[in-house]
Amino acid sequence: MIAEGFGQDTDRHFASYLFRARGSSKETRNQLRAATTRGHITESERAKTSERYHEVERMLTSLADYLRRENRRRR
Asked: Is 42 within the bounds of a domain?
């Protein structure tokens, strides 16, 4: 999704793609919970992977917030 959004005309439009990517990350973390419940991965693996996704979500949010404030035209 981020690659698709990169070609948008303004920073604000690109930011909307970043928020969609964040949503996809949250969905993945939910799937990790399901995988743990079903015994496909351990709780330790889930926690480690989930924390990495959570960090990516924080970075996506920070960048998107910045872009929405700036809203420059892309060149």
From this structure: yes
Task: Read off the amino acid at residue 49.
Answer: T
In a domain, 75, yes or no: no
| Confidence band, pLDDT 50/70/90 cuts, at residue 31 | very high
- Domain count for the chain: 1
Distance, in Å, from the CA atom of 4 to the CA atom of 17, rounded to the nearest integer, reads 8
Range of the domain at 63: 2-70
CA–CA dist 3, 70 (Å, integer)? 20
Answering whether pTM is above 0.85, one says: no
Transcribe 22-54 into DSSP letters.
HHHHHHHHHHHHHHHHTTSS-HHHHHHHHHHHH
Q: What is the mean pLDDT of residues 6-35?
A: 88
Q: Confirm whether 28 is domain-assigned.
A: yes
